[in-house]
Request: fold
Amino acid sequence: MLIGELSKQTGLSRDTIRFYEKQGLIPVGRKERRFNNYKEYTAITVERLQQIKRIKAFGFTLNETAEFLDMIEMNQASCGNVSEKIADKVALIDQKIAQLQEIKTLMTNSVEKCLQDCAPANPDENCPILTSDTFAEQSQVKNGSMRVGY
Reply:
């Protein structure tokens, strides 16, 4: 089947399929190409993409997904091994939630302080949340110099 049909069967865009292929998550060898150089995908590729979708639905990164796929290929994806990896991911998610909660609290407190102390007295000045080291120092102390980026 061609990439358009593969896209329909898996619900993934053509670009996503091509990206996964470039990342080595789905192999397509020379023998799987037509005379016009169009790639011919098989039912094995459909199953592989469905596995990727299932793993990604749990929030795993592409690198983690590749590890799971390797485990499947080496017949090492036992319930114990998979459960351990999922438990590790849950622990990381719990840490991230705690960090984000700290940031939310800091931001909420900063806004409240700014609205109480700064805005009424100096409505036209730059907000000290962005210009004062005091706010930055509070952020580093409360968050251990943690930076959350997306």
